[in-house]
Amino acid sequence: MEQNRGAAQTGRPLLCWRIPLRNNHVGVGIGLVIGVLALQSPAASASDDSDLDIRPGNGSPGSTVTVTTTACGPDVTYGKGESEAGGQFHMFEGDRAGELTGEFQIPGDGGPDTDTVTVKCPPRTKLTDTYQINGREPNGAVEAGFGAAKDTDTQIVVGGALLATATAGGLVRMRRRSHSSRT
Prior knowledge:
elongated
């Protein structure tokens, strides 16, 4: 009743609270994307708590691992590091001021595991972090179920044909839409 008096006094019609259904899927999609990003952000910020930067974060046996840190301070030019898998290594000044960098090699005979790296620098700074050691890297082509792994010519031809067909279909569809919008 209150709304009717307000409409009569202003001379404006009552507002209808209808939401067009064709736009609902857009709002749901945007909400899902925002929800996924919100759920991932705490995990991303919590996963980088260490002051050590270990590259690659998932090395393989025989590969070289680089450890970098800025936590020792701007005046420190030397540090010592130790990896459970790779042994002891030295850390020297890096490319930037206050940065220490060191390298070691993962032994080639190991399998998948985790490795702990500890870095010590003066006066009493001790940093520890872990990273993954994967199994051996694959050697050669990987069969994915489409022909022989060494028969790349056939795969390139078929892939090119599929891409050309998809492009032609898209052009036909765009042409049909443009003709229907003119009439």
